[in-house]
Amino acid sequence: MHDHSCCDLTTLRTTRRRFLTLASLGGGATLLGLAPRAARAAGDVDSVVLSCMDYRLMDDVGIYLNGRGLKDNYDHLILAGASLGAVTPKYPHWGQAFFEHVGLAIKLHNVHRAIIIDHRDCGAYRLIFGKDAKGEEEKKLHATQLHKLAKLLHEKQPKLAVETYLMDLDGKVENI
After folding, report:
1. Pairing verdict, β 47-51 and 74-78
2. What integer best gives the mean pLDDT of the chain?
3. How many CB atoms lie within 10 A of CB 27?
């Protein structure tokens, strides 16, 4: 009976050698195909985006930004609760990391705008505020945090334009 939990050394060496041979034969073409993207990554981008980590909306955030003509033209930062994550005193190191990343995005990619996208039915809001707000109450909670973050961004990075949005679970976005 053969034990499949461990490969023999000869098979590993042969597989590795075959991989390296194939990689060296096709590697040049692969690297050439990546060159435009690598060059773009080293240059300027339009915006830095903050959104929540909620897996339900990752695609919708990308679709929204692409629809605005920002495909491959933004740095994306993610915090639980988006704006709330950046301003909550419960996790001050999140805000510190956010502002450091924004500063880095400005230095590296010359971003001139911050786009903050909160979303409805956010678990971070429920956990941090200890309630499950809905409707207008939920919108007011988000608006308060979004405006608080916008104010802090204006104080720390006065040249940075700030846009704030609230996304529904269906991907519809509302300017706040």
Report:
1. parallel
2. 84
3. 11
